[in-house]
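Why do we care about 3D structure at all? Because function follows from shape, and shape follows, mostly, from sequence. That is the central idea of this module. The next example makes it concrete: a single protein chain, its amino acid sequence, and then its structure expressed as tokens.
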Amino acid sequence: MRLRPTLRGWALAAVGLAIVLLAVAMGSVDLARLGAVGLLVVGASAGVVAWIDTGHHRRPLAVHRAVVPNPVHAGERVAVEVRITSADPATRARLAGLRFAEQAATELSAGRPLRARVQRSPGLVVVSYGVQTARRGRWPLGPLVVTRNDLFGTVASTSTLGEQAEVTVWPAVTALPAPSDVLVGEPDRVAIGARSPSTDDSSLRDYREGDDLRRVHWRSSARRGELVVRSDERAGMRPVSVLLDLPTRPAHVEWSISLAASVALAMLDAGHPVRLLDGTRAHTGVTGVPFLHTRHDGARAALLDQTVDLEATRVSSEAQSRLVASAHLLESTEAGGEIVLGVLGPLGAGARAALAHVADTAQGWAMVRTDPQHAADQRDAEHTVDALRRAGWRACLVTPGEPAITCWMRLLGSAR
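And the structure:
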């Protein structure tokens, strides 16, 4: 609790003190008493407010904060409702004289005061407002700031009420078209892309070149006069690893994460098992990054949750070592027939060599960042694209700030 005089209180105390000093100089007892009244009012008001707040802490108010939606994508609006209730008659009376203000991180309030609507009823105060999420992360909201004035408005006490909440902000994402016909249907990759046996044979479909013959349903094929196979479209889809190389320039970090998240969600929605490799977990010795499946509830949320705490390094050598660690993770898990989709920056020789080996067992596609304003970066990005293509990757250049759909379609078009 913080107790302080208001502007009126300071003025009353100053006038009272001036009158007391004047009375001492003049030797007037009556004038001194008049000045003392002002000081006494301020002091007594402070004591009363402090006593009331002490009683408030003995019988606390109940605070419930609802944040909808939470988590939320960057750039979207969040509605917040704070309900302050009291079932105690004494606390209910004090509730009517309180003023409320909410606190929020700058990433939620843009540094401006929150405009809230306050609704009062007996034993209940509802504070509702909206915030605009600015960027990815986990941002604090609250606690509630409570201000109480005395009867004369000379003293104010400020304290906090309730617990602090957290708003989880996912990166902004773009809905991208399903790419399975381009990524999986290449003639030179059909054998690798054949659907594997699944324990959940929920449907039949026409046989496609490269399908596993063990999945042929011979009885139905004989009846129809053409080959059909048992298929659970999701269980037989090729796994996808989205390889994210975080840039060292802060201005490009959010764009890169949003692009990688959009690509990962597009593949997840298409039915592929997906995992996100940012190099952080592989670099710290954590192996076996699991794949997420659309048949599991919360797969999209789990994938986006992995992006919330991503932080780029300021040192280029560390960023390259993270990427090499991710490449080694792909090799150690025997990514045979896997699709690797990379959101990369200009790479050094060591990182290019590590990714070249990935293409020996997996199908690699990469979008490589380039910055036309920096000639060295653009030259290194072009060398990276050339090196990846020679190693068997499909690769194209992208510019930070471009729409994700533009980058995605350029990558898919590089196959033609």
